[in-house]
Design brief:
Elements: H1 3-31, H2 38-46, H3 52-55, H4 57-69, H5 71-101, H6 109-136, E1 140-141, E2 144-145, H7 155-179, H8 185-213, H9 215-222, H10 226-230, H11 232-249, H12 253-275, E3 278-280, E4 284-285, H13 286-289, H14 293-320
Antiparallel strand pairs: 1-2, 3-4
Helix pairs in contact: 1-4, 1-6, 1-7, 4-5, 5-6, 6-7, 7-8, 7-12, 8-9, 8-11, 11-12
Length: 332
Amino acid sequence: MDYALIWYILIAVAVFAYVILDGFDLGIGILFLGGESEKERDLMMNSVAPVWDGNETWLVLGGGGLFAVFPLAYSVVMPALYAPLTMMLLGLIFRGVAFEYRFRTTRGKFLWDSSFFIGSLVATFTQGMMLGTLLQGIEVAGRQYSGGWFDWFTPFSVFCGFVTVAAYSLLGACWLLIKLPTPYLSRYYSIAKKCALIMVVMVVVLSIWLPLGNSQIAERWFSFPQALLFLLIPAGSTYLVYLLFKDLIEHKPVKAYLASLGLFFLASLGFGVSTFPYIVPHSLTYTEAAAPDTSLKFLLSGAVILLPLIIAYTAYSYWVFRGKLNEDEGYH
């Protein structure tokens, strides 16, 4: 049994779960200062307050799993991404503190509003930059990171940061369409359409830019016969974009949210197609970076128990706080 491959898949699932779960509440943070009244901003924050901290469990699982299961990859990736990773964690801290203190002050509420917005924006933008850094490749020599301190700061990685901001904003707008009371909805249908349009245009540019700048990825995507199979990803994405705009026009927020999640899933498949079997693109494969099989088997025995518990808790928390918000109630 290929335990390293099993863990490669599990960590990919954990990262994807984090992106779609924490993505919408980061998106709400990005849209937060656009709320037209204090009451609207209260509702925006209350729509994610019961679940946001549980969403970040998947980030801990992904990062901790990388450290335990692929220690060589961890030792290479961390030096390459120290600066954006630190900025992301600071952003998450600022927005986390804002959840706890915003409802406990009146005079200082504007400070925590700004903290929630800035923390969400910084965390989102740096996640995109880290993704862009991985896609463009990390220099490795002698099983160590051999690049420079600012290799993560390139036009491509910055562009990926903007793409992530647009994508998370779309998720956030769709979530608000599901959760907010009816009087607040009309403006967010317009916001969701604008975010979706910006995201689609930027992803098209990114999809052209990436293979032009990386011959290995270009060969992967455009070599026959596998290119015929991989074409299903852009074809499926095109169909989901059509459904997304159709559902937004017809005011079907749940279907629009599901269509946006489908786009994230296909984007994740695209990332896998571009990088597999590398866990540090395009330098270390998952087998080269994996811990010994004895360690992988031991850790897998714990994951078999832990993962179902995390999934069950996450599902239960969303079930308990399902439905639209009541303007007279909230999570404080």
